[in-house]
Write a structure and sequence with these properties.
Blueprint (H helix, E strand, L loop, with lengths): L6 E7 L2 E8 L4 E5 L7 H12 L3 E5 L11 H13 L14 H16 L4 E6 L5 H4 L6 E7 L9 H5 L5 H14 L3 E6 L7 H11 L3 E6 L28 H17 L4
Length: 263
């Protein structure tokens, strides 16, 4: 399906071929969409990244491109992800298999765009994927937006990061030796992205982890509902002074700082 402003391409690796939507010029940013798919809000976020001077590659992983968000649509895609081989939604200390394919796509993006490296943002079900990809030195600007895997069915699941121990060790080494930074976004009362997960990221990565936690508690100053989940897409309020707009601006600035350090 066509997506306004993007070129629909295909990318094959590891025996798998998927559509990838591409646009822009400048350093590369891999945009990994959330459940239920590449909604108008996700496409809108990707356009903002393009407008900020980056090349976006956005693979189609599930859902129907361009279809609007709805509760039933999201529920169907979550159920499909639960049984799909590409996604290990309950794995505490292992990454989803699709991250191997995404890593090859990320390397290809870096080769196409050049420069010191690329950025990557995962959202919701793909949020932790940006951490899994840190094992590759091409990734210089990982963003975890409401990382929701593994699903928080137990206290241990809520604390877990959905990456192998060796990947976490690489992230720590890169933070120590290369100055790697990791940016994370969540709403404070989002049960799908529990506070314990960000606590684990702080413990494991220390000052290399920058957390943005937007207040969605009772009586918060901006009237953000307790059910808010998608910081830079569905629940974004694109107004100056709103904390979700500030979070979006920080994501774009983070890409700029990490991928265009000379500027």
């Amino acid at each position: 399906m066509t997506l306004e402003g993007f070129e629909q391409t295909s990318f094959s690796a590891l025996g798998e071929t998927r559509d990838v939507y591409r646009a822009g010029e400048g350093p590369g940013v891999l945009v990994m969409h959330e459940i239920p798919g590449i909604t108008p809000q996700v496409a809108g976020f990707a356009r903002r990244v393009v407008e900020a001077g980056f090349t976006v590659a956005m693979p189609d992983m599930f859902g129907k491109v361009g279809k609007k968000m709805s509760g039933p649509y999201a529920a169907r895609e979550i159920l499909r992800a639960c049984v799909a081989e590409e996604f290990a939604v309950f794995a505490r200390h292992d990454a989803s298999p699709i991250t191997d394919w995404l890593r090859v796509l990320m390397r290809d993006l870096h080769q196409r765009c050049g420069g010191p490296g690329v950025g990557a943002i995962g959202m919701c079900l793909t949020g932790n994927f940006a951490l899994a990809l840190v094992a590759d030195d091409a990734l210089l600007a990982p963003v975890l937006s409401q990382p929701s895997l593994p699903f928080g069915i137990t206290a241990d699941h809520k604390r877990s990061l959905h990456v192998p121990g060796e990947t976490l060790a690489i992230a720590k080494r890169r933070a120590r030796d290369q100055g790697l930074k990791v940016l994370g976004l969540r709403f404070s009362h989002d049960f799908m992205c529990p506070k314990q997960r960000f606590d684990s990221l702080r413990t494991e990565l220390g000052p290399a982890f920058e957390a943005i936690e937007v207040d969605s508690g009772p009586g918060n100053a901006h009237g953000i509902p307790r059910t808010a989940h998608s910081v830079v897409t569905v629940d974004l309020v694109d107004e100056e002074g709103h904390p979700t707009r500030a979070a979006l601006d920080r994501v774009l600035a983070f890409f700029d700082e990490r991928l265009r350090p000379a500027s």
